[in-house]
Design goal:
There is one protein chain. With 336 residues, the protein is of the alpha+beta class. It contains ten helices and twelve strands. The protein folds into two domains: 173 residues, Ribosomal Protein S5, domain 2; 139 residues, GHMP kinase, C-terminal domain (Alpha-Beta Plaits, 2-Layer Sandwich), CATH 3.30.70.890. The structure holds (3R)-3-hydroxy-3-methyl-5-(phosphonooxy)pentanoic acid. The site of (3R)-3-hydroxy-3-methyl-5-(phosphonooxy)pentanoic acid has 17 residues, from helix 5 and helix 6.
């Protein structure tokens, strides 16, 4: 014990890699206002995932993340590098050393687009390290560890990204409180369309803060109106009223425009989705770039998807909520 080596590896019986994953996410309503204590609703994108694989090897912990050009021993990365930080935070939390292993990171989630790619990579790393040491998984702990790394990316994150990704289920979220599961009365069909324009959450959140400081009363009123839309949307989701939910999402987009975080490309995608039959649409995440989310009926999903592509979306994903979440997706697995 205490060597940090996988027991099977030490005994030489087998050399088994372990893989864990974490989903992306989309904010359905309430972004930005959530930083100021108002509620928000977020859902996992279980089909879009980051993976972390630990492969036993004869040397100190080494990280490979080809998408961001990293191939280095842990000791050569700055301690505050997000990948190094989550390894140190997790191993310190469980009082074990980084194991003699190669950590390989992969992800289908586009970066800087409001889909939670940074939080998903961190969550996958926490999960695979816990699995390596056979420490039971616990969503609040995973969420808290990932939050520490989100602070490097975002400055003052509300905590919604790490929470929805760690719990991997639709949530109603208020900053500083445990998340509440979201009862869903009927299946919801959503399209997430990527504008292809990167969005830097830290900058957009900083701009909103400056505007709030300059005009606090106006911004507080806007955030209160966002909160009303979130509450109405939550009730609409619970009773399966997709038309009411669509209206709330569209109203939330108008408020995000007033808050100053939309962009012509996002407005264009939102208007396109609504024109061709979406029940509602809005930007999702920090804004200025990144993604929009549209609520559709199953019968119109293909038409809206094609229209979004024709309007310039670089990628469109379909997702459905209201089905039991496949939690097995996020459980670590042994790789023969
Ligand atoms: O990471 P993004 O782009 O989904 O933005 C997070 C949502 C914000 O409300 C804008 C910021 C936050 O910390 O909640």
């Amino acid at each position: 014990m205490g060597t940090g080596r996988h027991p099977d590896y030490v005994s030489g019986v087998k050399e088994t890699a372990i893989r864990a994953s974490a989903s992306g996410k989309v904010i359905l309503l309430g972004e930005h206002a959530v930083v100021y204590g108002r509620p928000a609703i977020a859902i996992p994108l279980s089909g879009l995932r980051a993976t972390a694989t630990l492969i036993p090897h004869l040397g100190p912990f080494h990280i490979q993340a080809p998408a961001v050009g990293i191939n280095a021993p842990l000791s050569e990365l700055p301690p505050n590098h997000p990948l190094a930080r989550i390894v140190y935070l997790t191993t310190e939390h469980i009082r074990r050393p980084p194991p003699d292993a190669l950590l390989r990171i992969g992800s289908d989630i586009p970066v800087a687009s409001g889909l939670g790619s940074g939080a998903a990579v961190s969550a996958a790393i926490v999960r695979v390290l816990l699995a390596w040491y056979s420490v039971p998984l616990d969503s609040p702990t995973i969420s808290a560890l990932v939050y520490e790394v989100e602070r490097i990316y975002h400055g003052t994150p509300s905590g919604i990204d790490n929470t929805v990704i760690a719990y991997e289920q639709p949530i109603y979220f208020v900053r500083g409180r445990p998340p509440e599961p979201l009862p869903v009365g009927t299946a919801l069909h959503l399209l997430v369309a990527d504008s292809g324009i990167p969005s830097q959450t830290r900058e957009v959140v900083g701009d909103v803060q400056r505007q709030w400081e300059a005009e606090p009363a106006r911004y507080e009123r806007l955030f209160d109106r966002v909160a009303e839309e979130v509450e109405e949307a939550r009730r609409a989701i619970a009773r399966g009223d997709v038309r009411a939910l669509g209206k709330r999402m569209s109203a939330n987009h108008e408020l995000l425009r007033e808050i100053g975080v939309s962009a012509p490309v996002l407005d264009h995608l939102v208007e396109t989705a609504r024109r061709v039959g979406a029940l509602g649409a809005k930007l999702s995440g920090a804004g200025r770039g990144g993604n929009i989310v549209a609520l559709v009926e199953e019968s119109t999903a293909s038409a809206v998807e094609e229209a979004l592509q024709a309007a310039g979306a670089v990628r469109v994903w379909r997702t459905r909520i209201g089905e039991p979440t496949n939690h097995r997706n996020s459980e670590p697995s042994l790789i023969p």
